[in-house]
């Protein structure tokens, strides 16, 4: 689909995207690049990074890749410094790196829980903290009067409760909290906007293939009337809105982009049945004399 945004809306900006080599992170990298930004992507797997950078470059996007693990503070520091050295400034940080697997809580080890917290929550905080001196108003390399922008990729799992996702629910709840707290502190002190996106099920992503493999989704679709699958494009367009001047007054928000999926409940009665039943119940309630409640006092 064609973008509704002007092709130069991010011209001159530099974006660093963790987990930018695959899935939603790669689509965000692509679309930020197509809208004028230069792109640095950070990831753990060299071959994934190389393939992603080549794909971005083939679209005419100025792109580089830096190997690193967001769980390691020294990697975060090095990648942010390398991005600055390469481009001369950093305007946008997107935290898209995440880890996940389905597991019943009773089978999850403390280390398994901690691993996802470390990638999603601690990693997000570490990247934000290390990028602060470059993103803040008047910070290193900034030639604009405003601060930069941070975007944290979250989820909707923790809005209610999610089967076999205790670790990710806890981690994404922390991410949303980081988004709000940094929006308050860094929005006030440094003119940095901090927002998030909570994607629903998105086609062709590692998240969907890990959390809802075909064996599960075929059944789920029967039971969830609102069940629809989004595209990576949906997330990337929301990302452009939030990190560009289009969203200049948006700060501290996590935008749910899920087609209403998290609101879904199994429909217990078909619509026509409810209409019939409702008429019968209404008629009955009008026919019945209204009882005066008796009081024992
Ligand atoms: C139970 C598991 C497990 C599983 C790992 N562990 N997989 N426990 N069931 N399927 C446990 C291990 O036993 C170990 O604990 C601990 O977790 C660390 O595992 P490692 O394999 O050593 O970790 P590592 O190699 O660092 O890999 C991290 C990872 C892996 C998260 C486990 O899956 C990964 O690298 N993922 C990145 C890519 C990814 O998942 N992308 C999808 C993101 S989708 P013990 O106690 O044995 O030492 C996404 C969507 C979010 O985030 C929301 C959607 C709605």
Secondary structure elements and pairings:
Elements: E1 14-18, H1 23-34, E2 38-43, H2 46-58, E3 63-67, H3 73-87, E4 92-95, H4 110-135, E5 149-153, H5 166-190, E6 193-199, H6 206-211, H7 214-223, H8 232-243, E7 254-257, H9 271-287
Helix pairs in contact: 1-8, 3-4, 4-5
If you had to describe this structure to a student in words, what would you say it looks like?
With about 300 residues, the protein is of the alpha/beta class. It has 2 domains: about 250 residues, 3-Layer(aba) Sandwich (Rossmann fold); about 30 residues, no CATH class. Helices cover about 45% and strands about 10% of the residues. The chain is built from 9 helices and 7 strands; from the N terminus they run βαβαβαβαβαβαααβα. A 7-stranded parallel beta sheet has the order 3-2-1-4-5-6-7, sandwiched between helices. Helix 5 links the parallel strand 5 and strand 6. Helix 1 packs across helix 8 and helix 3 packs parallel to helix 4. The protein is elongated and about 80 Å long. The model has no long low-confidence stretch (mean pLDDT about 90). It binds hexanoyl-coenzyme A (HXC). The site of hexanoyl-coenzyme A (HXC) has 18 residues, from helix 4 and helix 6.
């Amino acid at each position: 689909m064609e973008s509704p945004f002007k092709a130069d809306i991010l011209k001159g900006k530099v974006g660093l995207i963790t987990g930018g080599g695959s899935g939603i992170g790669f689509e965000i990298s692509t679309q930020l690049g197509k809208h004028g930004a230069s792109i640095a992507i950070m990831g753990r797997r060299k071959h994934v990074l190389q393939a992603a950078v080549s794909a971005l470059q083939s679209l005419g996007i100025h792109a580089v890749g830096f190997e690193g693990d967001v769980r390691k503070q020294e990697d975060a520091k090095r990648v942010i410094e390398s991005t600055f050295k390469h481009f001369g400034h950093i305007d946008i940080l997107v935290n898209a790196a995440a880890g996940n697997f389905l597991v019943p809580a009773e089978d999850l080890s403390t280390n398994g829980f901690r691993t996802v917290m470390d990638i999603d929550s601690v990693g997000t905080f570490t990247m934000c903290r290390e990028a602060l001196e470059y993103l803040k108003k008047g910070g290193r390399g900034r030639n604009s009067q405003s601060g930069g922008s941070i975007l944290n990729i979250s989820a909707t799992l923790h809005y209610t409760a999610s089967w076999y996702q205790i670790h990710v629910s806890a981690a994404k709840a922390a991410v949303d909290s980081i988004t709000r707290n940094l929006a308050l502190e860094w929005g006030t002190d440094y003119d940095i906007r901090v927002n998030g996106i909570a994607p629903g099920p998105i086609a062709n992503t590692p998240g969907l293939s890990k959390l809802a493999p075909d064996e599960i989704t075929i059944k789920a679709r029967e039971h969830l009337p609102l069940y629809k699958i989004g595209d990576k494009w949906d997330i990337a367009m929301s990302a452009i809105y939030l990190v560009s001047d289009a969203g200049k007054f948006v700060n501290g928000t996590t935008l749910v982009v899920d087609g209403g999926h998290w609101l879904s409940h199994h429909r217990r009665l078909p619509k026509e049945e409810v209409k019939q039943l409702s008429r019968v119940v209404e008629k009955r309630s009008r026919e019945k004399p209204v009882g005066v409640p008796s009081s024992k006092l």
